Amino acid sequence: MKSISRSQVNEDLASFLQGFVGGSQNKSSKYFIGVQDKSLANELKQNADYKCKSNETTFELFRGIRLHFTKYLAKKDADFKDTDLSKASLGLGHAFSRYQNKTDVNRQDKHIIQSISLLELMDKNLNQFSMRLKEWFSWHFPELAKIVTENHTLVKCIKAIGTKETVTEDTLEKLEEILGDSDMATKVYEASKNSMGRELSELDASQLSNFCDRVNNQFEYRTELQQYIKDKMNTIAPSLTSFIGENVGAKLICQAGSLVNLAKYPASTVQILGAEKALFRALKTRGNTPKYGILYHSAYIGKALAKDKGKISRYIANKCSLAARIDQFSVLPNAKFGEEMKLQVDERLKFLEKGVQTRKNADVMKEVLDELKSEGLYVETAEKKKKKKKSKKQPEEEESQKKDKKKKEKKVKVEDDDDEEDEEVQVSKKKSKKVKTA
């Protein structure tokens, strides 16, 4: 089952064919093996030398076998029931799906999808928690929120201060460590002495402290999750990560469903991923379609001028599509293609702003491939080697075909000349006859 699902010929299948069909078939044999899977048929032709057919006729035959299979089994075995076949097919389906889950090459995509979704949810929750904490502590110390604006730093400062009445020189040192700026720490220290907020009871202060601990733990877990996504993306999609960033790349994979789906998408679809609602609304109202979706969060869109944002988003989508295909289908994925694509986008931005000429994409890709070959990171598949062998044979075949064409043309010319001579002779004979009769 495993080998057939991969379109491979294993020992069991070879021995089965050996027992029922015999050894490899001769070219003069009148019999063919009907195979429903075209790739398996090709494998049998190439490796086992069997004559196979996989066309509409074989499909119809298999359809008829499936239709009358129960009747055939009922004749062979009197105890057979229709429910036995349904149970067997259900068990086979479960075994096959279990095997597919185990051997799924892209199962790591699922971890990226779940982790980036969790990261987005945590960002929303942390923003709400920070706003709630800021509003709660502002009743006691309203000046702090104006001095410290970053959420995580504010949570740490609230935890270090506790209450404004207990702020001392020791807390000033803690604030300097948290803020990394002595001037800002002194501002907080001075503001605590002249604050207009109301007093806090011990119970309220303890609740605030506990809430700060919970929020601070979530901020720390978010940094760990961000590092996890970065490491995971560097292993699964290094070119896409080095080009567009781990967060935007993970969001694209999440929106597409998997890296395989993203690799199959055209650049036009990648460009508007995440802006489906705006697209259908524009199509419904016959308005302007969106220029970008998730790609808006990339740094390149912010660098471009307002008039060039649509052009650069198309260019970025094209490169993202290429990077996803390289990551999905390369044997040894690496980040060098993405790094070169990054430089290409910078060149494109300069071209749109100042008209500076850019390099051709074919030349850039060739340079990267040469570099990978020199480092031993470029691996050719068996199919590519076969194509190269065919491409080497093609020039010889083309030359022979050209020679044959020339010979045929010469023969045709000689025949035409002979026909013309025959026509001239006939015309001259007719003229001589007319002269005699006259």
What does this entry show, briefly?
The protein has 438 residues and is mainly α. The protein has 21 helices and 2 strands.
Explain what this protein looks like in three dimensions.
The chain has 438 residues and is mainly alpha-helical. The protein has three domains: 2-102, no CATH class; 110-229, Helix Hairpins (Orthogonal Bundle); 237-375, Nop domain (Serum Albumin, Chain A, Domain 1, Orthogonal Bundle). Helix content is 74%, strand content 1%. The chain contains 21 helices and two strands. The protein has helices at residues 2-5, 11-20, 38-47, 56-76, 82-102, 108-138, 143-147, 151-161, 169-179, 182-193, 202-236, 238-244, 246-256, 259-264, 267-271, 276-285, 299-303, 309-329, 336-354, 361-375, 382-437; strands spanning 33-34, 52-53. A two-stranded parallel ribbon has the order 1-2. Strand 1, helix 3 (38-47) and strand 2 form a beta-alpha-beta unit. The longest helix is centred in the C-terminal third of the chain and has 56 residues, at 382-437. It is elongated, with a radius of gyration of 37 Å. The model has no long low-confidence stretch (mean pLDDT 82).
